[in-house]
């Protein structure tokens, strides 16, 4: 049943995945298990050309009805997978869930709560640093602080964690952004365009279990450079 105040009935979870055979089944199980204020959940997994056996795991997941699985023909990047997922979801709210278990689906209720409390809410980010948490390597923390500070300077915002994966938005607002990024620069693009459209981004604290490059973390310094370029680009380029 839809919330009569906010018109929200379904939370759509987009899970972009690339070579996460060890964790993808656990992520989907945890997303399925969490209860979110009585809302229905739909899970759309977008496999971005995995080659490590992830697709074999996803065949079972899809066959059991635990998630809808979409297969990209080749690896294109996180942004491309997110955009594919967005084209297939049907819920009023959309959240992106990485497949690496760094962020916990058990935090969904606190992310959704602002939407149920205030019908005007358009975007809520799950911040890993809002309550003074220090998670991840020193270099990762430094890079995040720099990119978040640059976002705040360019867009007059007051965010604490621009790069968080947990970006929960109203689906219509997210679709209106006309997202274009194919790689990890989807994160700054979403943030920049939300702010350019005049949306206030609320933040709530979430837990974080960082993994290392040895565990399969793929983001690198080149993605940091792309993030800077994306933030600067969408500050000055006309948006839809």
Uncertain residue segments: none
**What order do the helices and strands follow?**
EHEHEHEHEHEHHEH
CATH topology: Spore Coat Polysaccharide Biosynthesis Protein SpsA, Chain A
Enumerate the strands of the largest sheet in spatial order, edge to edge or round the barrel. Answer: 3-2-1-4-6-5-7
* Strand residue percentage: 15-25%
CATH homologous superfamily identity: Spore Coat Polysaccharide Biosynthesis Protein SpsA, Chain A
What labels describe this entry?
240 residues; 37% helix; alpha/beta; 8 helices; Spore Coat Polysaccharide Biosynthesis Protein SpsA, Chain A
Brief summary of the model shown:
Helices cover 37% and strands 16% of the residues. The protein has helices at 24-33, 54-63, 78-86, 108-117, 138-155, 171-175, 186-196, 221-236; strands spanning 10-17, 40-47, 68-71, 93-96, 123-127, 167-170, 201-205.
Would you kindly provide a written description of the structure presented here, covering whatever features stand out?
Helix 5 (138-155) packs parallel to helix 8 and helix 7 (186-196) packs parallel to helix 8 (221-236). The chain has helices spanning 24-33, 54-63, 78-86, 108-117, 138-155, 171-175, 186-196, 221-236; strands at residues 10-17, 40-47, 68-71, 93-96, 123-127, 167-170, 201-205. It has 240 residues and is an alpha/beta fold. It has eight helices and seven strands. The protein has a seven-stranded mixed sheet with strand order 3-2-1-4-6-5-7, sandwiched between helices. 37% of the residues lie in helices and 16% in strands. Helix 1 links the parallel strand 1 and strand 2. It has a single domain (10-236), classed as Spore Coat Polysaccharide Biosynthesis Protein SpsA, Chain A. The two termini are 33 Å apart.
């Amino acid at each position: 049943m839809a919330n009569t105040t906010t018109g929200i009935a379904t939370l759509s979870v987009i899970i972009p995945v690339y070579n996460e055979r060890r964790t993808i089944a656990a992520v989907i199980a945890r997303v399925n298990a969490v209860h979110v204020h009585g809302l229905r959940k739909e899970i759309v997994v977008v496999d971005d050309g995995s080659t490590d056996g992830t697709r074999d795991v996803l065949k079972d997941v899809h066959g059991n009805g635990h998630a809808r699985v979409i297969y990209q023909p080749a690896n294109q990047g996180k942004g491309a997978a997110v955009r594919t997922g967005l084209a297939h979801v049907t819920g009023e709210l959309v959240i992106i869930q990485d497949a690496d278990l760094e962020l916990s689906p058990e935090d969904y209720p606190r992310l959704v709560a602002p939407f149920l409390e205030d019908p005007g809410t358009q975007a809520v980010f799950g911040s890993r640093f809002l309550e003074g948490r220090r998670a991840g390597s020193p270099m990762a923390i430094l890079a995040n602080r720099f990119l978040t500070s640059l976002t705040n300077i360019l867009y007059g915002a007051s965010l604490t964690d621009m790069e968080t994966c947990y970006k929960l938005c109203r689906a219509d607002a997210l679709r209106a952004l006309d997202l274009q990024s194919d790689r990890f620069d989807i994160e700054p693009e979403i943030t920049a365009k939300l702010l350019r459209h005049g949306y206030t981004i609320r933040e709530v604290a979430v837990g974080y279990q960082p993994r290392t490059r040895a565990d399969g973390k793929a983001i690198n310094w080149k993605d940091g450079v792309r993030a800077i370029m994306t933030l600067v680009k969408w500050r000055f380029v006309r948006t839809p």
